[in-house]
Amino acid sequence: MIDHDREFLVSCRFYWSATGIEQRPVLEVKDFSYSNTIASKNTVLGAGKPGGMLFGTPIMSTNANKPYTITVVMCKDNAIQRWMSECAKQWTSTGNTWSKNRKTSTLCIYDQSGNVVSQFEYVDCVPSDYKIGSAKASSGDVMTETFTIHWREMTCVGREAGTV
Q: What start-end ranges are recorded for coiled-coil regions in this protein (predicted)?
């Protein structure tokens, strides 16, 4: 039976942005996930009364350092390239400005009517593995930027998931 009060998120539009970087249309997001550690490592802990099995429960989120890779439409400004360059300076002898280059990024999902239906906010993000898509002079393709985002904390706004 179909529940007509439930709206499925199909034909949605996705946009990515970060502090100081305007929204970019998203073409693809890869490895967009998080997981929970199970106390017993998915094994039986013992037998309870009356003979029931006791299993471990999730004890902590292990989402830290689970990067996601995103492909966005390239814009005339080079804000993502600049951000990548600023973060790369961390590994030089000019000093450590790591905390100044971290940004909050947002992945917004819009329904067919243009309303925000879900929003994922990532805290303390830094980019890595930047590349520009292939281009041909005769092609009508869109120029793209693909990069990996490392993050510390994720919050889901507009859905029941809450903070991860």
A: none
Residue 78 sits at φ, ψ, to 5 deg, of -110, 40
Rg (CA), the chain: 20
C-alpha–C-alpha distance, residues 147 and 132, integer Å: 9
Q: Could you tell me how many helices (H) and strands (E) the chain has, helices first? A: 2, 12
Query: Is the bond into 67 cis (omega within 30 degrees of 0)?
Result: no
Tokens of 144: 């793209």
Instruction: Supply the range of the domain harboring residue 125.
Output: 13-31+67-163
For 14-155, where are the alpha helices, taking DSSP H only? 79-88, 98-101
How far is residue 81's CA from residue 87's CA, in Å, rounded to a whole number? 10
21: which 2 tokens?
């970087």
Query: What are 68-127's pLDDT values in tens digits?
Result: 999 999 998 899 999 988 887 755 566 666 678 899 999 999 988 888 888 999 999 989
151, part of any domain: yes
pTM for the model stands at 0.73
